Amino acid sequence: MKTVLIFKSSPRERGNSATLADRAAAGAREAGAQVEMVSLHGLGIGPCDGCDMCKDTGNFCIIDDDMQSLYPRLLAADAVVLASPIYWFTFSAQLKLFIDRWYGLVNNQQAFLRGKPVGIILTYGDTDPYTSGGINAIHTFESMFGFLQAPIAGIVHGTAGEPGDAEKNPALMQAAYELGKRLAG
Fold first, then answer.
1. N or C: where does the chain have the smaller number of CB atoms within 10 Å of the terminal CB?
2. Beta bridge pairs of residue 36
3. What number is the average pLDDT over the span 75-92?
């Protein structure tokens, strides 16, 4: 049984990106995967301070915060989903902090995501990925996962500015569901 690890990065527990992440989870479960959901907003994850102790000690990071419990889960997952609203033309600060702390993983186990499929879920309040800035997040993910040699299984994105908008868009909800199924396969 595959494990799909889904990270929600919205400060809104029931925000649109979280709603779509839940749909992806439902698709993955239906396809037979074990799903674990993590809400980054409620965790205490500090920024990477650039100390490079991860290189010197061989530990992923010396900062003692909630990120420590996420490293083994990232390593063990068969597939990963990152879900975020677009704030100020890119993904949320919660997701940025989380990704920045992968620095220690890259320094000690660069292949931590190699070959593992990744799903991306983005919601924005503007009309499309260009005017919203969602395209910036998409380009960042494409570059980052290209470097990490982790194939992007799909990017689900759409306009959903007001709470509940994602649920009013059947095509967007179905795309998230299908992404989850694909990641479980």
1. N
2. 5
3. 97
